[in-house]
């Protein structure tokens, strides 16, 4: 029996982000209903938490081999070319995620140096941006784990 690989830290982070989004959205709705005005911080935090949720969820999907892909060509190829295709897929993913990590890190560092503040609450902008390179790096790790498992036969081609 093959066990489903897990990305526990990313799963917890995504769950926490979703719970916080739900709570601040509910709080905003209740506040708007009672007072007629809304809470100022909800949109800024919700957008930030949606980005965290998206990247953390994508890392979980990568580890669990749950991303959508067309497997027709993979299934049609013999073992050696199939492994080459899996490595090619890994290389393409690493290139894209590597660029996100590099430029996201560069942007976070610039925001830190410039001491930029967020428009809504006036918090340091890098607090929000630093999660982009961190979570894209986590996705790189999870994609590498998934590729290793697919090449060794520990992870089925179709979930």
TrEMBL record:
One of its GO terms (biological process) is C4-dicarboxylate transport. GO terms for cellular component: plasma membrane. Residues 21-151 form the Tripartite ATP-independent periplasmic transporters DctQ component domain. It is a multi-pass membrane protein. Its main location: membrane. It is found in: Cell inner membrane. GO terms for molecular function: transmembrane transporter activity. Keywords: Cell inner membrane, Cell membrane, Membrane, Transmembrane, Transmembrane helix, Transport. Pfam families: DctQ (PF04290). The chain crosses the membrane at residues 12-33, 45-63, 84-105, 125-141. PANTHER family: 2,3-DIKETO-L-GULONATE TRAP TRANSPORTER SMALL PERMEASE PROTEIN YIAM, TRAP TRANSPORTER SMALL PERMEASE PROTEIN. The complex comprises the extracytoplasmic solute receptor protein and the two transmembrane proteins. Part of the tripartite ATP-independent periplasmic (TRAP) transport system. Belongs to the TRAP transporter small permease family. This is TRAP transporter small permease protein. It comes from Halomonas campaniensis.
């Amino acid at each position: 029996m093959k066990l489903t690989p897990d990305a526990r830290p990313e799963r917890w982070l995504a769950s926490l982000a979703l719970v916080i989004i739900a709570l601040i959205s509910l709080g905003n709705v209740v506040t708007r209903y009672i007072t007629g005005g809304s809470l100022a911080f909800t949109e800024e935090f919700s957008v930030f938490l949606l980005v965290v949720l998206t990247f953390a969820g994508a890392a979980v999907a990568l580890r669990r081999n749950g991303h959508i892909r067309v497997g027709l060509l993979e299934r049609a190829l013999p073992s050696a070319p199939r492994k080459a295709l899996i490595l090619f897929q890994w290389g393409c993913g690493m290139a894209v995620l590597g660029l996100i990590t590099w430029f996201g890190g560069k942007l976070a560092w610039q925001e830190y140096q410039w001491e930029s503040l967020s428009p809504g609450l006036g918090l340091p902008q890098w607090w929000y941006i630093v999660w982009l390179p961190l979570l894209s790096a986590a996705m790189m790790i999870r994609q590498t784990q998934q590729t290793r498992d697919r090449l060794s036969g520990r992870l089925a081609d179709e979930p």
